[in-house]
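About this split. The held-out portion is used to measure sequence recovery: a designer receives only the structure tokens and must propose an amino acid at every position. Recovery is the fraction of positions where the proposal matches the reference. Here is one held-out target exactly as it appears in the evaluation file.
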């Protein structure tokens, strides 16, 4: 009898959490420096992907990116000085999620770096993500810090961001849900493939951008950048995912997942009923299709929070919408259909607006339920980028989440 009452209580809580998430209406409203947008952000704080770790535990590309950001911000003259200041606690490294933000791969964000501002007028909540750095394999996102990366970050801060900000303020904002709905119908999963979403966003931005900023050499640079980077929309989808998922955070007794994140060491989740607590496990294997000349020995985890797309029913959960990704996902179109169908068994329901054409316009699996993961042993399928051990983009693949964090979360809810 007590178990039945607990199950009914959880069912009500999960229904409320998912209702809040589907009711959200995320709108791209601005692009501003992280210091001005993110709650709790300070000039000497650097954000990174994953659940919190002490500075001494960071290594490899994630460590290099944090050090590079410290030099970029002028907090230190050299990476050696930055390392000393981080050890002393005079420069702080903290999780993106604790500041209303998500980050791709290393996830590194510092005070002057511009972020998307996505707002939800229904809940009053917000989500943020850095602007996409471009398709060059050498990026701070992928653990590379050098002069070329620095120059690109300066251009993003001083040219791209102001143009986008002026445009968005002129338009009054761009709703995200319709963009995602169209992109799913055009073959995107909104994680590893954002070709359609970027094209649709470009349609919405190009005219207003020229109206707001004039036909200048810089405007042309911005339009060329947008049209030449198919993954540009990913960071919009991530900011929107954070905005949507956070509407469920704090729903008492709910086992709905509100965040999934990776550091170089760990996979971790949050669930609605336990708020900001992280449940962790070692990072599992990434089954990746790598660029020519790269082998499995050349890659390493550097973190990542683009998994927020799966948290809101996209990415690997929507694999059946994006057959062109089959080599990077389940290996075949039937395999991708099977992967999505398996996800319906661990989610609360289906999204009422985001639909998959191949499945008869069935809604994407929505609201990952940690209790269903724990009871079935089926874990989320995640589309994810691969990074070179020494820094740089190496390819993409499929990550099957470990079950332990979901089991631990349910035990904490039941405890």
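Reference sequence for scoring:
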């Amino acid at each position: 009898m007590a178990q039945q009452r607990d199950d009914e209580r959880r069912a009500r809580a999960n229904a409320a959490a998912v209702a809040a998430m589907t009711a959200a209406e995320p709108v791209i409203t601005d692009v501003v420096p992280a210091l001005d947008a993110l709650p709790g952000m300070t000039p000497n704080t650097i954000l990174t992907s994953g659940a919190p770790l002490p500075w001494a535990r960071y290594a490899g590309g994630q460590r290099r990116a944090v050090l590079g950001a410290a030099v970029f911000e002028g907090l230190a003259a050299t990476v050696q000085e930055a390392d000393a200041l981080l050890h002393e606690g005079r420069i702080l490294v903290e999780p993106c999620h604790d500041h209303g933000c998500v980050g791709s791969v290393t996830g590194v964000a510092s005070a002057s770096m511009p972020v998307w501002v996505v707002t939800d007028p229904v809940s009053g909540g917000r989500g943020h993500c850095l602007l996409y750095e471009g398709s060059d394999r050498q990026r701070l996102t992928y653990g590379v810090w050098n002069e070329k990366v620095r120059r690109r970050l300066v251009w993003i801060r001083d040219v791209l961001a102001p143009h986008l900000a002026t445009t968005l303020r002129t338009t009054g904002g761009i709703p995200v849900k319709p963009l995602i709905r169209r992109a799913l119908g055009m073959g995107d999963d909104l994680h590893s493939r954002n070709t359609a979403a970027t094209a649709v966003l470009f349609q919405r931005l190009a005219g207003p951008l020229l109206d707001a900023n004039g036909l200048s050499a810089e405007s042309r640079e911005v339009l060329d950048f947008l049209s030449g980077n198919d993954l540009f929309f990913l960071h919009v989808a991530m900011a929107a995912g954070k905005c949507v998922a956070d509407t469920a955070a704090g729903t008492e007794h709910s086992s709905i997942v509100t965040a999934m994140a990776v550091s170089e060491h760990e996979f971790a989740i949050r669930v609605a009923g336990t708020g900001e607590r992280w449940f962790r496990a070692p990072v599992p294997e990434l089954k990746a299709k790598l660029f020519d000349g790269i082998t499995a020995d050349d890659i390493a985890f550097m973190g990542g929070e683009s998994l927020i797309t799966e948290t809101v029913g996209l990415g690997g959960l929507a694999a059946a919408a994006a057959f062109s990704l089959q080599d990077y996902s389940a290996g075949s179109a039937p395999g991708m259909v099977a992967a999505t169908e398996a996800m319906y068994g661990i989610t609360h329901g289906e999204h009422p607006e985001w639909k998959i054409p191949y499945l008869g316009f069935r809604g994407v699996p929505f609201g990952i339920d940690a209790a269903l993961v724990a009871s079935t042993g089926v874990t989320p399928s995640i589309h994810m980028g691969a990074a070179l051990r020494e820094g740089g983009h190496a390819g993409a693949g499929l990550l099957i989440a470990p079950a332990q964090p979901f089991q631990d979360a349910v035990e904490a809810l039941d405890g």
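Annotator remark: The two ends are 17 Å apart (CA to CA).
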